[in-house]
Every structure is written in C-alpha cells, then in structure tokens.
Design a protein that fits this description.
- The protein is an all-alpha fold.
- It is built from ten helices and no strands.
- Helix 2 (about 25-35) runs antiparallel to helix 3 and helix 7 packs across helix 8 (about 185-210).
Length: about 260
C-alpha cells in the first residue's frame, strides 16, 4: 500500500517537473521524510537516484521537441558536476565523523536551502504578477562565446552543484533562476534547458550518493514507476499550461514545507 501511495504521489510530482522544471527533489525529499518517516540521509540519496531517471526522460523528451539550449546545458554541466561531487565528498566526511549527526544536519540544510531559494523565486513571481510594468535592474548576461562568459557559467554551476550534491534539492529551481537572470532564456526553451542540465548533474550526483550506502531501492523503484510517466505527461503539456499560477502554488507550498523542516514540531 505504501509503495502504491508513493508511486501515486510521485506521478503528480513528475507532472509538475515536466511542466515547470522545478519541484522534484524539493517535494519528494520532504514527502519521504514527513509522510513515510524516512531518515533524511536515506531520503536525500534515494531521491537523487530516483530523480535522475525522471530528469533524463524529461530531458530527452524536450530534446526531441527542440526546446533545449545545448550550449548552456554543456557549460553549466562543466561546473555543476565537479561541484556536486565535492558536496557528496563533504557528506562522506560528516558521515565518518562520530560526533556529527548526518540526519540532523541534512534536515536543517534541506529546509534552509528550500526556504531561501523558493522565497526568492516567490517574491520575484509576485512582483512580476502584481507589478508587470516594474523594471528590474538588468543583470549582466553571460556570453558563452567568450572564455569569461564560460568561466562565469561554470563558476555558478559549481556553487549550485555543490548545494545539490549535499541536499539533492533545487537542481531545477535554482538553475531556473540562473537561466532567467543571466541568460534571459525565453520561456520556450527555459523548462527543457533546466531539466536537461539537471539530468546531467543528477546522473553524476547519484553515482556519488551510491558510494554513501544510503540509497534505498525499495523507495527508488516506486518513485520511478510514478514520476517517469508523470514527467512525460508534464513535458507534453508544458507549452499548453500557464506556468505562473502553477509556480505560485508550488513555491508557496515549498516555503511552508521548508519551515517545517527547519523547525520540526
């Protein structure tokens, strides 16, 4: 019954990921912790492995639809992959230290990460909705035709990859903010590019988490069974469903979830 329920919930998470490119780990990891009473270290590692297939399938679907900016994906991956492996390395150090509680540390890290990222995204979304004519300061656009632009892209990819490697969270939402802010990517290619870079990032991150010995395959498989069909449905609907109202609901939910993680009852 738990497996069926997990697959059922994962199906809807997959739809959200396919539609918006965000919310996968940010929803599934807390779901495993709160609803299924999974220790944070196992929830993080299992979610990373499960999310990998979901993102790969979604990325392939968007590649077939030609809704991907390949150059952005490539240069982000050159930074995010090494960064994520460094994050996994820090988890190894914490786990090997007898005086440190990996589950306690991860619970707070996940909560703080989700809270900060989703709060920023929620404020941005509200400002764009309530004040559509408001002019935001224009951030410098990364030019991938120059070495400096490539270094900038790899640098920010490494920082965000490190956070993903440690928490599994926001391989989509954090990078989506980067794609909007520093590449001014149009909405047609935003979701596909976001999912595709996350697929590469999580592929290597999941290999790192497998070495931690905290992956529970009895969780991974039901998540796969639900999320993969879900992300296919979401990817198909991506260009037909208005994303702003959906993102508002997701971000609001994530802010509440993150508060619960940081300050559990």
């Amino acid at each position: 019954m738990n497996d069926l329920f997990l697959s059922f919930l994962s199906f809807f998470v997959g739809i959200i990921v396919g539609l918006t490119g965000v919310g996968g780990a940010s929803l599934i990891t807390p779901m495993l912790i709160f609803l299924f009473q999974v220790p944070p270290s196992i929830a993080v590692s299992s979610d990373v492995v499960a999310a990998t297939l979901m993102k790969v399938v979604g990325g392939f679907k968007h590649w077939r639809q030609q809704t991907i900016d390949v150059q952005i994906v490539k240069w982000l991956a050159f930074g995010s992959v090494p960064g994520s492996l460094m994050g996994v390395g820090v988890l190894h150090l914490i786990k090997s230290h007898k005086n440190l509680n990996l589950d306690y540390i991860l619970l707070r890290l996940i909560g703080v990460t989700i809270f900060l990222i989703t709060l920023i995204a929620l404020v941005q979304l509200l400002l764009l909705t309530l004040f559509p004519n408001l002019k935001f300061p224009t951030l410098p656009k990364f030019n991938l035709k120059t070495n400096f632009g490539r270094c900038q892209t790899m640098g920010i990819g490494a920082i965000l990859g490190f956070i993903v490697g440690m928490t599994s969270v926001s391989s989509g939402s954090m990078f989506a903010l980067v794609l909007i802010s520093f590449f001014q990517l149009d909405s047609r290619k935003l979701v596909g590019t976001d999912i595709s870079q996350a697929a590469i990032l999580l592929l290597f991150t999941s290999l790192g988490h497998l070495t931690l010995g905290t992956v529970n395959w009895s969780l991974v498989i039901p998540i796969w069974l639900g999320s993969v069909p879900g992300v296919l449905v979401g990817s198909k609907l991506c260009q037909m469903v208005p994303q702003r109202p959906l993102r508002f609901v997701i971000y609001t939910l994530l802010v509440m979830v993150s508060w619960k993680l940081v300050y559990p009852a």
